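Methods — Computational structure assignment.
A single polypeptide chain was analysed. Its primary sequence is given first, followed by the predicted tertiary structure written as structure tokens.
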Amino acid sequence: MRNGLPSVYRNKTSPLSHSGPTVAEGAALYAANCASCHGPQGYGDGEAGRNLNPPPANIAHMMGMPMYNVPYLFWTISDGGAPVGSEMPEFKEVLAEDEIWKIIAAMRAGFPAPAGAE
């Protein structure tokens, strides 16, 4: 963040609505791709992240901070943690852009459990 957001990400906005289906799909994508490190509620307490240094971000806490805006979230999910000094992998080759937007919608909606989760 100290170096600012790369220009390619600065004006990114979601082309998707934040409707129930978008959030539900994002919740399933978050569970499949993010929760193992960040935890099901985004607290950074996922099992796979326990031995990472630095530990996974508590993104649930960060959702209310101004610097964690939509372009920043899209950038960090896409490019991973290398630009910010963490081991988070990049997802731009794993997830389509609309899938990243759906994950962001689910995070912004408070990390709802995916459909069928107990």
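Note: The longest helix spans residues 20-33.
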